[in-house]
Amino acid sequence: MSTPLPALIIGAGIAGLPLALQLAKAGKPSIVIERCPGLETKGQNIDLRGPGQEVVARLGLEAAIRAKTTTEKGMSVEDENRKSWAFFGVSEQKEGKKNTSPTSDIEILRGDLADVFYQECLAKYPNLISFRFGAKIASIEENDDSVTLTLKSGEVLHGSILVGADGQGSQVRQMCLASSSNINVRHFHLYMSYYTIPREEHDTDIWRIYITTKRRSLFIRPDGSGKTVRVSLCVMTQDPEAVKAFEEQRDPKVYKEKLKEIFTGAGWEAPRLLKAMDETSDFYLHPTVQIRMDKWHKGRVVLLGDAAWAPSPLGGMGTTLAVSGAYLLAWHLNRKDVGDDPTKAFTRWEEEYRGYVEKAQDIPSFAPGLFYPRNVLEVKALRWFAYMIGVVSKLPFLGSFFGGGEDPFKLPADEEMA
Ligand SMILES: Cc1cc2nc3c(=O)[nH]c(=O)nc-3n(C[C@H](O)[C@H](O)[C@H](O)COP(=O)(O)OP(=O)(O)OC[C@H]3O[C@@H](n4cnc5c(N)ncnc54)[C@H](O)[C@@H]3O)c2cc1C
């Protein structure tokens, strides 16, 4: 019997790694190709909800993941004097229910979640999952019964399928699906920067948010280390100078100068955060966009996670969609009746999953603007609104109204695979 061709998975990220694990569970090999020289451990706090939590439990990784959470106890909306106007505690995941509080019971650093998946690949499936780090794609060629991937190093890999799990800026999307799917990039005109700074005595295990005028907000979040905290400066702007600095220059120095200009005088902890920005080693900034496509697959090539549907960080669903989408894709690929025709699996998977993704992407265009007020009046109105929601959501008879109801997506059982 000939050895089956591996799945070629581009991107050792939050979507690519659980896909490799779930395929390996069914005895299927994969090669994971990552452009970074090692596992990309950058990234700040991400949360895992509903079906995403169910997937890690089924992979036997729940304890390892819970051991690495950021210990965040909730989210507080503060004013310039650090007075809290609203507090939202941790919302615990209840089976089959949506978890809609800003702080989920699994808050983890992106790098830690990726590392748990990666270590599991190494420990449990050394013969089924292999890695190519620091690898750059030169070309992708589809044949009737396989896909050929050539790397810039000259290495040529043959796979049964190729999965683009290469994030929001996906190269696979551009190379393989640009001609067959309408790709719509929805821009929120929101720029979010992230970095790590030393923890100070008054920092707590609460995610603290300060929202101020001129569409600016500042976040400080715990990371569980006890030594550092994670910071975010966010601004919604269409000012041509700012857009040029954030979109065209691709230079952290330029980003930082622009952020200093925008956030100087913002109040709250802005002086501390701006000063620390110069000393941090992990600064990055990205425009907040959403990717929408008519179709996520073509022939033997399929997109997964942010590459296919980046929902934006605004809904807090990017990680959950990536992890449960990976599981469901593997579930369909592992079905016996798929045989040699992966497009059957891709089609069934997309039919089943698209509705859930589109629901998560359904952010009304006015909504982000509500959280980025322009002037003092709007800031005050937002604080009172947050205060009321904070109070009402704690009332027992109304609390469940904010609990989110049924989660619209249910994972199929492993045993149902036939
Ligand atoms: C550095 C980084 C930091 C992030 N920080 C946050 C954050 O703070 N908060 C948040 O909510 N979300 C963050 N995200 C996004 C979050 O991880 C995703 O929204 C989500 O988890 C979906 O995962 P994904 O696997 O689809 O994409 P990602 O987690 O982005 O993984 C994509 C992987 O593909 C690799 N890759 C990209 N292009 C290529 C290529 N051409 N060839 C090979 N490999 C490639 C990347 O290096 C990365 O390892 C971050 C992503 C990255 C890459």
Describe this structure in words.
By secondary structure, the chain is an alpha/beta fold. The chain has a domain at 7-71 and 108-184 and 290-364: FAD/NAD(P)-binding domain (3-Layer(bba) Sandwich), CATH 3.50.50.60. The protein has helices spanning 16-25, 50-58, 62-66, 110-124, 171-177, 240-248, 252-263, 270-277, 306-309, 318-333, 342-361, 367-370, 376-392, 396-399, and strands at residues 7-10, 30-33, 45-47, 74-78, 84-89, 107-109, 129-132, 137-142, 147-151, 156-159, 161-164, 183-198, 207-212, 216-222, 228-236, 284-293, 297-298, 301-303. β13 (207-212) and β14 form a beta hairpin. Bound molecules: flavin-adenine dinucleotide. Flavin-adenine dinucleotide (FAD) is lined by residues 10-16, 33-36, 40, 42-44, 46, 110, 137, 165-167, 171, 194, 305-307, 313, 318-319, 322. Residues 1-26 form the signal peptide. GO terms for molecular function: FAD binding; oxidoreductase activity. It holds the Pfam family FAD_binding_3. This is FAD/NAD(P)-binding domain-containing protein.
